[in-house]
Design goal:
alpha/beta, 9-stranded mixed sheet, two-stranded antiparallel ribbon
Length: 646
């Protein structure tokens, strides 16, 4: 065994009980506190440029004419001397005046202000880009730090059952999926010293993987092949005649279609109890079938060759013929019961002479042994009753039903099932410490499964039912009291729909409409205005005065008159253009009530995938999981269930 295999076996048998592994995606990093506040770009003020632009526009004409007139006057004044030096000096002065005027003109100041504004814009843009890069680095560093933390978090968590149900129903799945589930569940159970009994009715060796792991772990493994384990065994070692008759009658009742008369069960019990109570020696299936032939008066006693019954037994049963009745109904039922038991009687006779292939592996005293995979996995005590060996602490017992005859295989399945049910009723198995797994119990019927579940709960033994199909009878069994339900891959659409309905429905908000509306509005206007104003004012004034002095007396007078006329005209022309763009996005949600798990999801589950439905302490929960034992070798594996960490 390689190191990897040894480590896998060690991990499968370590830890607490689990039904698979739940994958939990690490949470997304939380947003940075500044994520919603990116740096804002502030545009430099262009008020000075706007003011200079207005001034330059107003003084464009008047400033030019005035300056030209001034310069011309200066040139004439300086050149009035008439000599060459004066002319040169006049030219130089004009040039200097032109340069000074150009540097101080409104247009020059406007160009300088525009250059300053452009430099300020470039500087503001660089600073904004630097702030944006620093802001983005903070966000990236924050996210990277949380991602590094997520890489250290566990992603696989054991899928436990906090409610500790006494019964677990598994519906759907394949043989490989069931084998993985049994290995995942059975490893910790056997590792903790609990007994585990697997009744495999599938003929697909679903417990073989677990048996291989147990053998490598040196855990005792007991293989019980049936019907071989039944052949030649004294049934009265486990049953009284009445109990034996009831067990066989219950098994035969499950083979009849639903709705059959219930009094047939009473007839079967009467016939079987009559024969079993009159047999003086061991009660085997061959001797029971022979006793029924005596009741039918078809038993052929050969004096030269001893048969299965003693003469005294034949005589006692013959005297009871009149007690069982001679009605057609009784005779038909007697013929049916005898035909069923003859199947096992023939196998028992073949085992005696070594010709029955389906009965190999059983000893005459009923003890059986041998691990499933043929390796040494613990000794089997010879001479100990078979049922006492089936339930040993820390041991794995696998009961498999194999037979080439379909009718005998079907009857054997039912008989071993009710044999286990009888053992639970008799408290043959110590309760409170072990688990009983029944794989492939679909054909046994609802009543049989409910009886087993009820008795297992009463006895303190946990029951696990592996059912391939979710049909009408199985649906009625699912979700019983103190139980959990597991759904694996379900290929049939109707069964997947029934499973989805069982899992339940929930309210969801779904997007049912997305709208996007884009609008653009273009407005253009032009206005002309003309204003004419004319005013006339006229003012008259008269003044009079007098004075007296040494020189005499004088008088003066005066009048004034003023006349003014004002005229003003103004023209105004304005053009305006505006564009408005708008975008509206809408999202409509509707509240719907639909499946929590769609049927197609159940049909598309991996082979080892499962959906667990449990009513736990915190309420009903639905969890997706995977029961592949190889998950135990993955990194970032938690040793505790996720529910216990919250």
């Amino acid at each position: 065994m390689s190191d990897t295999e040894a480590e896998l076996v060690r991990r499968v048998f370590a830890g607490e009980e689990r039904w698979g592994w739940e994958f939990v995606q690490p949470p997304e990093p939380p947003p940075h506190p500044d994520a919603a506040n990116p740096p804002a770009h502030v545009e430099p003020s262009h008020t000075r440029v706007r003011d200079l632009t207005e001034r330059a526009t107003e003084k464009r004409n008047s400033s030019g004419c005035g300056c030209f007139t001034f310069l011309l006057a200066v040139g004439v004044f300086l050149g009035a001397g008439g000599d060459g030096a004066g002319i040169v000096a006049a030219g130089i002065a004009v040039v200097l005046l032109l340069v000074a005027w150009g540097a101080s003109s409104p247009r020059a100041r406007l160009r300088a202000a525009q250059r300053d504004l452009e430099r300020a814009r470039e500087q503001a843009l660089r600073e904004h880009q630097n702030r944006t890069r620093a802001w983005q680095r903070r966000l990236d560093t924050h996210r990277a730090e949380h991602l590094r933390r997520n890489e250290e978090l566990d992603t696989w968590f054991p899928l436990a059952l906090p409610s500790r149900p006494s019964r677990i129903d598994v519906f759907g799945g394949t043989a490989h999926g069931w084998a993985s589930l049994l290995a995942t569940v059975g490893g910790p159970l056997l590792g903790s010293g609990q007994p585990l009994l697997v009744l495999d009715l599938t003929q697909q060796a679903v417990a073989l993987e677990l048996a291989g792991f147990a053998a490598r772990r040196e855990v005792p493994v007991l293989h019980v092949p049936v019907p071989g384990a039944f052949l030649g065994v004294d049934l009265c070692a486990e049953f009284t005649p009445e109990e034996l008759a009831e067990a066989i009658a219950e098994a035969l009742a499950t083979m009849r279609p639903p709705g059959t008369d219930v009094d047939l069960h009473a007839i079967d019990v009467d016939l079987l109890q009559t024969v079993a109570s009159l047999l003086e020696g061991a009660v085997t299936f061959a001797r029971l079938a022979a006793g029924l032939r005596v009741l039918m008066r078809v038993y052929d006693a050969d004096p030269d060759r001893p048969g299965p019954l003693e003469p005294s037994e034949i005589e006692a049963i013959s005297r009871a013929i009149d007690l069982v009745g001679h009605t057609e109904r009784v005779q038909n039922e007697l013929r049916y019961v005898r035909a069923q038991l003859e199947l096992l009687a023939r196998a028992e006779g073949g085992a005696a002479d070594g010709s029955a292939g389906g009965s190999a592996g059983a000893a005459a005293d009923g003890s059986v042994g041998g691990p499933v995979d043929g390796s040494a996995a613990g000794p089997v005590d010879a001479g100990v009753p078979a049922l006492a060996q089936w339930w040993r602490p820390g041991a794995l017992t696998i009961v498999t039903s194999e037979d080439v005859v379909h009718r005998r295989k079907d009857l054997t399945d039912r008989l071993v099932f009710f044999r286990l049910l009888h053992a639970l009723r008799k408290r043959t198995f110590a309760g409170g410490t072990g688990t009983l797994v029944v794989a492939g119990a679909d054909r046994l019927g609802r009543d049989a499964l409910e009886s087993m579940a009820r008795q297992a709960r009463t006895s303190g033994v946990r029951l696990v039912l592996l059912l391939e199909h979710l049909r009408e009878g199985a649906v009625q069994v699912a979700g019983g009291s103190d139980s959990a339900t597991v759904f694996m891959r379900m290929g049939n659409g109707e069964e997947a729909k029934a499973a989805a309905q069982f899992i339940g429905q929930e309210h969801r908000f779904l997007v049912n409409q997305l709208t996007r509306q884009v609008g653009e509005t273009l407005t253009e206007g032009r206005s002309d205005g003309y204003t004419y104003q004319r005013g006339t004012s006229e003012t008259d004034g008269t003044s009079r005065g007098g004075s007296s002095g040494k020189g005499g007396w004088g008088r003066n007078w005066g009048s004034s008159r003023s006349f003014s006329t004002s005229l003003s005209r103004s023209w105004q022309e304005s053009t305006n253009t505006s564009t408005a763009r708008s975008t509206t996005r809408g999202e409509n949600l509707s509240r719907v009530y639909e499946f929590a798990v769609e049927p197609t999801q159940l049909q598309a589950l991996p082979v080892t995938g499962l959906v667990l439905v449990e009513a736990g302490p915190g309420g009903r929960r639905v969890v997706f999981g995977d029961c592949n034992p190889g998950i135990t070798l993955l990194p970032r594996l938690s040793a505790r269930p996720r529910a216990s960490l919250t």
